[in-house]
Amino acid sequence: MASMKTGVHPDLQIERENGTFDPIQLTNLLHGGPEKTRRKRYIQSLAINDKTFKNSPNWATLSREERYELAVKKAIHQARRVKELGLTDPLDRYFYNQAFMPNENSPFGLHNSMFTDVITNQGTEEQKSKWLPLIQSYQILGTYAQTELGHGTFIRGLETTATFDGKTDEFIINTPTLTAMKYWPGALGKTCNYCLVLAQLYTQGHCHGLQSFIVNIRDVNTHQPMPGVEVGDIGTKFGYDSMDNGYLRMNNVRIPRENMLMKYSKVSRSGVFAKPANSKLLYGGMVSIRSFITGDCGRSISMACTIAIRYSAVRRQTTDSSGETERKILDYQTQQYKLFPALATSLAYIFAGMNISRIFMDVTSKIRQGALDELPQLHALSAGLKACSSYKFNEMAERCRMACGGHGFSQASGFPKLYVNITPAATYEGENTVLLLQTARYLTKCLVSAKQGEELPNLVAYLKQPVDGRTCSINSQFDSNSIVSAFEHRALRLIEDCAHRIQYLVKNGKSQSEAWHLTSVQLTKAAQAHCECCVVKFYLEQISRDPGPKLQQVLQALFQLYCIYTILENIGDFVKDGYLNSQQIELLNTKLLDLLAEIRPNAVNIVDSFDIPDEILASCLGRYDGQVYQALYEYAKESKLNQIEVTDVYYKHLKPFFEEQKKLADVPILPSRL
Amino acid sequence: MASMKTGVHPDLQIERENGTFDPIQLTNLLHGGPEKTRRKRYIQSLAINDKTFKNSPNWATLSREERYELAVKKAIHQARRVKELGLTDPLDRYFYNQAFMPNENSPFGLHNSMFTDVITNQGTEEQKSKWLPLIQSYQILGTYAQTELGHGTFIRGLETTATFDGKTDEFIINTPTLTAMKYWPGALGKTCNYCLVLAQLYTQGHCHGLQSFIVNIRDVNTHQPMPGVEVGDIGTKFGYDSMDNGYLRMNNVRIPRENMLMKYSKVSRSGVFAKPANSKLLYGGMVSIRSFITGDCGRSISMACTIAIRYSAVRRQTTDSSGETERKILDYQTQQYKLFPALATSLAYIFAGMNISRIFMDVTSKIRQGALDELPQLHALSAGLKACSSYKFNEMAERCRMACGGHGFSQASGFPKLYVNITPAATYEGENTVLLLQTARYLTKCLVSAKQGEELPNLVAYLKQPVDGRTCSINSQFDSNSIVSAFEHRALRLIEDCAHRIQYLVKNGKSQSEAWHLTSVQLTKAAQAHCECCVVKFYLEQISRDPGPKLQQVLQALFQLYCIYTILENIGDFVKDGYLNSQQIELLNTKLLDLLAEIRPNAVNIVDSFDIPDEILASCLGRYDGQVYQALYEYAKESKLNQIEVTDVYYKHLKPFFEEQKKLADVPILPSRL
Fold first, then answer.
1. DSSP letters spanning B266-318
2. Could you tell me if A423 lies within 8 Å of chain B, comparing CB atoms?
3. Which residues contact A133 (CB under 8 A, 6 or more apart)?
4. I want to staple B264 with a disulfide (CB 3.0 to 4.6 A). Which of A93, A143, A377, B276 is the partner?
5. Dihedral (Cα; A441, A446, A447, A449), 10-degree rounding
6. What is the pLDDT of residues A272-323, one digit of tens each?
7. Which intervals hold domain Acyl-coenzyme A oxidase N-terminal (chains A, B) (predicted)?
8. A298 labeled part of a ligand binding site
9. Quick check: A504 pLDDT over 60?
10. Higher-confidence residue: A536 or A285?
11. Could you tell me which of A384, A374, A375 has the C-alpha nearest to residue A349?
């Protein structure tokens, strides 16, 4: 892009000058302080300033196979650099990797996360000392194979078997049916030579449920599949081009007994199975990943907002009367209504992610001291927040894309790659509906405890309040307590309604389980309501940390917008028992429009605060300098179809067709110029 | 797929046996009678049984450039076959093309539609007799170039100029700025040699606004760009890989004066501009396209439903207790709640499309007799319905995809291609928000007329009713009249509220135009409410045509589900003035769950009624025979990465990396078997 105009577009310049707060303040708040902001920028700059792949063609112009190859090359380079730079802190690695491969998945990603982590957490000391050095030195490259063609959500239903053979002291791994084949694991298809296989353990004629087994799938020297192994890529997907998600069938594949991870469960030389003492500790990993996804979805929405808001500040369209300058599209109320709720939602889930990580660390340290009682609350919340945040990402990212009209549809905008990279979050690490029902299960249990007068953990303590006959205290002050109370009331009302319906159905002859199924739509909504109530509290907690009066005012407006928008989108929940009245609805409707106008002058400064370098945003529309049209033109010129002026397609197909038609046609021969 | 299992999956077989109605009845209703169903099937079979491209690789495995080439080859073959078969009826062509290139855009599409149509409608007799034979015999291949880099929605703002040069009797076409470059027109990049250029006409020193010009952009013999023309592909997009959407810059490109389309506006030899007598007639084309999009979005949702519902009837997941057979996921209330509202919405917009096409033909014939008074109502409705239907497509298609979990994310599912092909409908042929505001403009005018006691056209006649103090009559009977009244009340209430707000703002010193802007969010919602009210009426009209008692019952349940779901999703509109009360909300919530259970046994038969051949659905999950797992496995094996067992990526990158790391590592050399 050597020919790019330099300098910031004046329309963006003015936006930045007119903001009422200093963006770095919000940047620091979002990253945990000035020191952490500096560290993040430093780490990102290491990846951004690495020129190794600077001459690679634009990702958008590559075929799927080229994307995969480039990703492997990048993963290799990244692995070397991470070692050379000595990046061991997970946050450092996150920022480095994200800057190096924005919105892409590294084919080494699962090797460094799930494969390593599960062996670390479920392996014995002996197993760890054998395998971890091999992993860390890339002498083996692994992935994690859980999902099968026929089973994702319901892991108890996995069909792969691992049968102990006492004669040889081995397990025999089999894919007994078509649906038992492993399907989806990342980097399984062509990249890895090892994987952790989740399989049903059989020994002494009994099934002992799922265990993890280290299986060598490709020869470490030749990369050919091992005997009995059929493995390959599963083909193209909505996105994830750089990842060879794979399938795997195993036919009597033998592995040594010591390849079962035995920190908890064990199989002895004689084939005796021993159960783990406590399985709750296995939760930890999932809670941590789901908490991470919550913040990541928030940050991904912030990317979409950055693109859409900067573009809307330089895109001008339509005058009311001729002769006038056209308006910035950001000045249209309808555009603000599309983008600012997304902006507020983004902050809401970034804050929620920060809070839940803090809670996670707190609970983890308590667990180390033997206190497990806060784990269920955390598990329920992290499951529910993962579901809510990934749904919100989908909704808000597409809303931002469509708010950018035609140009939003181009890969140049950055939206498509962002969307297809994050939308699977609704499925992976637990299908959203299933997770929400787990959260609901916890909440209904808490409600029973509440009725019995038991103490409840802080985030569900509101379930002890009486629900009937309350009215909402929201008035023109929009004070935060009345907003929090409204969210608490809504969640409690929905959970109560579920409990009543289940009771009613059981009284009328349904089984407990059937009654639960027949209430499941409402249960997922109740779980969402609880999570949204927590998000509101987390948001408030974050902005109450005295960020300074100017930023405080901006955050307050976004907080109110998030809350009011969420209330209005779910207004049925708030009015069905008369809690909120018609006057209050009107008040909320009007306030929402006022808030759009209030937020407008700071919109660009707020997205600047997200502090996303152009190289990570990778968007012609979201550029910091606002030179969007020049960038779109440069993008077009890079198209592979433009490498030759008159393409082969013309000579091979169009020209012969035109000539054939000319002969057939009963019209005079066309002169070369009309 | 030679190795595919044959026979229908027993889980689907049972669904089909257990349905309460005969699917062919609904098929006929949706297609306009048995004769039209037969014709549709015959036409589709002509394309499906054409084996010319049967040995082409799976579309999902091709690169963007290969997809473009295949599309050109298909377009050529299609053009030949359409001539040979003598397909002249637009509906025949639609079914043929759709079956031949499902969810793809033909690079000849705009040649045969916009390019031909605009010349036909806006050309003089002389122009038509010169150009149409050249078009029909493919001696020239054209497209329609309206959108520019800087202007889409606001066409008055287009910057391309056409300046009359009296000396040579020519127009000089120019792209005066960066933003004036044409950007997005389909097939412009590499395929076409002609285009219709929309440009500001300058003659005798004055600008006379936009006119259409026939411009030769590539030499018809060499395909090289004409002097002064810079043209190319705009690069990859979210989808539309088979289409070379292009950019075009023109520098003093000269065309003869006769290349301006002059049926309405004219420029004489001496450069005198003459205005058209009546410009309203230009509306017709847009109304027709937008009406078509409405039905097309409905049909596209029906494709998503077909995939998701058939898959959900064979996918089994989770048991309540071990030993039981796992449940079909279609039996979960949460899954029904995702899919059945989509099913009902699909029918709603298919019916709306059928109705609006009927109204369009009716109004068109009246226009031919000189009666233009129904055109504004039709224009407002077709604009609004296009917006509503395309938004609904986006929401429902992604909802269906995500309801299929991981497998929905694979291109094998068919969802990604469907989604990216239809989602631009929110932008093309009028940006949705802009269209809704046009609808709102019409409605506010009608409201003024209503207050003045004037007669209103039938679909807006409800605006004459008094709005205050009414209460909703919906009770446990859910009778259709009370439902229609509720939708009428909601729309009227929202339009009234807009009018009040505008009045209030004007009284408080805002200009009329500023007051309109400050009400625009509500105005778009009012427009949506009006359109949804019309959709409800159209639906009712369709099912009241006595389709027989069994089908009637199914359609009635879907009608009620559509209405109740829509009311609950927008409940704030219905409760804010006290129209609907708490008991009624409870009633609706409960009824909705009952309807899910009622529709469940017919779900598969309903999607079968959409009568979409497997070849068009192109989905491993949506196959008529339900053999989804076998199909996914076959799909995986087709991946290009699987063509070689050990890929080049291994030899070029992974192997050298492993060897390098082995040397660096301070661990024993790994034996070939662990």
1. EE-TT--EE--S--GGGHHHHHHHHHHHHHHHHHHHHHHHHHHHHHHHH-B--
2. yes
3. B665, B667
4. B276
5. 130
6. 999 887 655 555 678 889 999 999 999 999 999 999 999 999 999 998 877 7
7. 23-141
8. no
9. yes
10. A536
11. A384
For residue A44, count CB atoms less than 10 angstroms from its CB and return exposed for 0-12, middle for 13-18, buried for 19 or more. Answer: buried
Q: Which long-range contacts (CB under 8 A, 24 or more apart) does A265-269 make?
A: A265/A201, A265/A208, A265/A211, A267/A164, A267/A201, A267/A203, A269/A169
Least confident of A151-160, A240-249, B654-663, B665-674: B665-674
Beta-carbon separation of A640 and B65 below 8 A: yes
pLDDT at site A467: 92
Domains identified in chain B and CATH numbers: 32-104 (1.10.540.10), 124-272 (2.40.110.10), 283-319+326-454+475-607 (1.20.140.10)
Q: Please name which of A189, A260, A267, A270 lies closest in space to residue A231, comparing C-alpha atoms.
A: A189
User: Helix, strand or coil for residue A660?
Assistant: helix
Cα distance from B524 to chain A (closest Cα, Å)? 8
Cβ of B233 within 8 Å of Cβ of A642? The answer is yes
Residue of chain A whose alpha carbon sits nearest to that of B108: A654
Active-site residue identified among B429, B488, B532, B598: B429
Interface check for B643 against chain A (CB to CB < 8 A): the answer is no
CB-count burial class (<10 Å; 0-12, 13-18, 19+) for B271: middle
The answer to whether B147 is a known ligand-binding residue is yes
In this structure, are residues B657 and A220 in contact, taking their beta carbons and an 8 Å threshold? Answer: no
Element (H, E) at A342: helix A333-368
B376: amino acid identity, one letter: P
CB contact under 8 A, B238 and A411: yes
Does the beta carbon of A471 lie under 8 angstroms from any beta carbon of chain B?
no
Question: Judging by beta carbons within 10 Å of its beta carbon (0-12, 13-18, 19+), is residue B22 exposed, middle or buried?
Answer: middle
Instruction: Tell me how far apart the alpha carbons of residues B185 and B205 are, in angstroms, rounded to a whole number.
Output: 30
Token couple for B491: 């729309």
Please check whether residue A511 is in contact with residue A487, taking contact to mean a CB–CB distance below 8 angstroms.
no
Whole-angstrom distance, CA of residue B369 vs CA of residue B43: 34
H or E stretch at B660: helix B655-664
Residues 110-149 in B contacting A (C-alpha not used; CB under 8 Å)? 133-134, 137-141, 147, 149
B5 touches chain A (CB under 8 A): no
Return the percentage of chain A with pLDDT > 90, whole number: 91
What single-letter DSSP state applies at residue B462? Answer: G
A559: left (phi over 0), alpha (psi -120 to 50) or beta: alpha
Q: Which of B326, B654, B660, B663 to probe by mutation at the A interface, max A CB count within 10 Å?
A: B654
Which of helix, strand or coil describes residue B178? coil
Cα separation, A283 vs B460, whole angstroms: 58
Count the neighbouring beta carbons within 10 Å of the beta carbon of residue B276.
14
Reported for A111-118, long-range contacts at CB under 8 A and 24+ positions apart, including other chains, are A111/A135, A111/A138, A111/A141, A111/A142, A111/A143, A111/A187, A111/A192, A114/A143, A114/A144, A114/A196, A115/A142, A115/A143, A115/A144, A115/A194, A115/A195, A115/A196, A116/A142, A117/A285, A118/A144, A118/A196, A118/A212, A118/A261, A118/A285
| Residues A318, A327 contacting (CB under 8 angstroms) | yes
- Output the six-digit token pair for B74: 């298909």
Q: Do B178 and A232 touch (CB under 8 A)?
A: no
Which A residues 332-371 touch B at CB under 8 Å?
Answer: 332-335, 337
Q: How far is B617 from chain A (nearest CA, A)?
A: 16
ipTM of the complex: 0.96
- Which chain A residue lies closest to B667 (C-alpha atoms)? A133
CA distance A55 to A53: 5
Q: What is the dihedral of CA A307, A308, A311, A316, to 10 degrees?
A: 170
